[in-house]
């Protein structure tokens, strides 16, 4: 299991605390320091069953000047822009070994991925 996080984010800290409490093994990717490639982000977005703009943080996206159409034809441009400005990527994203990926911002989603990992 891997968790993409920003250690300054309270949702990320809550997620790692829950994983730790459950005894789940995971690796941390500080995606601001170690941004994903466009291919990696594209794979995670596909595993989530979403589009890149669905996991873009609105405020950070606006601050980065990303103003692209939310259309499949612009998927690659979205991925490239988000990789260039990784603060635009929603967090925390947890990817499990079984292929499950979630944006674990709410307690229910986090509890579900912890339960799957046990």
TrEMBL record:
PROSITE patterns: ARSC (PS51353). It comes from the Bacteria. Pfam families: ArsC. Belongs to the ArsC family. This is Arsenate reductase family protein. It comes from Nocardioides koreensis. The lineage of its organism: Bacteria, Bacillati, Actinomycetota, Actinomycetes, Propionibacteriales.
